[in-house]
Amino acid sequence: MDSCRFLTGQFLLAMPGIGDPRFERAVIAICAHDPDGAMGIGVGAVIDGLGLHDLLGQFDIDPGEAPDAPIHFGGPVEPRRGFILHSPDWAGQDTVEVAGRWALSGTLDVLKAIAAGNGPADWIVALGYAGWGEGQLDEEMTRIGWFNTPAEPDLIFDTDVDRRWEAAFGQAGIDPRLLVADGGSA
């Protein structure tokens, strides 16, 4: 496999009619993709009724300066595990830089830094992730269901969650209203 086929640092956008309600209108920020598999964080939907202050309270972290931001549905795998996608201006003990576009952290140090007001400038919190085993995402990309596009960090950090799916297609020059759920035949 050559590296141009890997999608690290890109968005996966669910096509209309993907067939899995968990991924309807999904926007997934791919954080790792190599011959062994892929991992991404969903940034296109939030978990109703759950805010950052609730999450911080579960870890006895005083919210301090942190806003009570919504928590994103990162994906169906390990839905109780937390991840923070953030700007690369901050790094902690487990931070991984993603293609120079954003960073991914998954330990309490980033939450403590956000609460203390000295964390990354931009961030979102998600529970769960989307994961693919060896060759699984590569196979899925050969079928209709997912569209990949370069990921612009402003779409994660500066675009309202309800507009990310349309905005990501728009950045690729596609009007999602023109996409159909089923392909035709000639």
UniProtKB/TrEMBL annotation:
HAMAP family per UniProt: UPF0301 (MF_00758)
Pfam families cross-referenced by the UniProt entry: DUF179
Record's signal peptide: none
Positions of transmembrane segments: none
Assigned protein family: Belongs to the UPF0301 (AlgH) family.
Protein name stated in the entry: UPF0301 protein EV664_11199
GO cellular component: cytosol
InterPro entries to which the protein is assigned, alphabetical: AlgH-like (IPR003774)
